[in-house]
Amino acid sequence: MVEMKVTPWTVEGEIDYKKLIKQFGTAPLTDKLIDEIKKHTGELHLMLRRKLFFSHRDLDWLLSKYDSGESFVLYTGRGPSGHTHIGHLVPWIFTKWLQDKFDAELYFQLTDDEKFLMNRQLSLDDTQKFAQENVLDIIAVGFDPKKTKIFFDTSYAKTLYKIAVRVAKLTTFSTAKAVFGFNNSTNIGMAFFPSMQAAPCFLPSELAGKKVPVLIPAAIDQDPYWRISRDVAERLGYYKPAQIHSMFLPGLQGPGSKMSASKPNTAIFTTDSLDVAEKKVMGAFTGGRGSLKEQREKGGNPNICTVYQYMYYIFEPSDEKIKQMREDCKAGRVTCGECKQRLAKYVIAFLKEHQKRRKNAKKNIDKFLVKD
Ligand code: TYM
After folding, report:
1. Phi and psi of 104, rounded to 5°?
2. What total of structural domains would you count in the chain?
3. Which of 35, 84, 257, 335 is most buried (most C-beta within 10 Å)?
């Protein structure tokens, strides 16, 4: 068994999320806090109800600020190292819901510098091209153009750099080593980069000329960046940024498998044709038995089934239907082929709509993109 490893660049092994909360020093998203959110939103997004979002930092503080009249800004991002897959869309879809419910502004960072520095195979030209592609997916999610600013680090650096250098000055290399696992062969660009990802945490305050609370929705792999940001925030005269963390949607090859651009069958990409996406779903890892006879007799195991997890966390909105799906699986009343077909239908409908919006997004880039 591969040992669990979660960093912004590597997610390996079977993830024990309770252990991760302890290791990272974050707080579990309790039912009480979820109820607090509901007081403001009136309903709960599926990803909250089903606890795909499971951990946070200072969300209680952020909500109490909101209660006392201080609205917050959302911040999230993408490292453009390839095309967008369904996992990336998790925090973005949830962020759009938060934007709608709290009428919040959003800052969306594309770290074309990070992916160039981190990945030997990618030129700066490559990461900038992927950023151009990814931005279409971001817009396709449906953010409000009047309340959303999207930027690439390399074309918004003048604004970000002034904040980043102040973060960098207060962050020692020994902290960066401890937080990110940097060593003597890490290039010095990467050693500086965390301060570029920290900068948007403070940008809303800089632009407003007063402290502005910020909430970052992202999967928990990005948390190390927020440790650096939180560590320096108060010394720089800002609030610490709050976070809400999601789990990882697993790769299609089952628990412990990661979605990866270099192994296309592990993930559904937004640029996949409908045929390819369907084939990927039909080849997904399930919790089924070796033979149909055994499946009918002993039932399957939804807990390890990717198809079930995709339905549970993303695609099946009905609580009743998902419960039925689980029970039918365990009782051997349904085959894996049937469940895959059900998921494939949802995935195809989703992709069709997303790809239409993605095409449309090309016309609207200028409404979202900021440069300096
Ligand atoms: P990146 O491009 O690796 O990932 C983009 C966002 O997707 C989340 N994510 C996932 N969520 C659920 N299931 C998965 N399988 C999955 N894989 C990735 C990531 O947590 C992330 O939220 N350095 C960042 C870019 C960045 C950023 C930010 C991200 C810059 N500023 C602020 C979040 C918030 C990166 O490379 O993300």
Report:
1. -100, 150
2. 2
3. 84
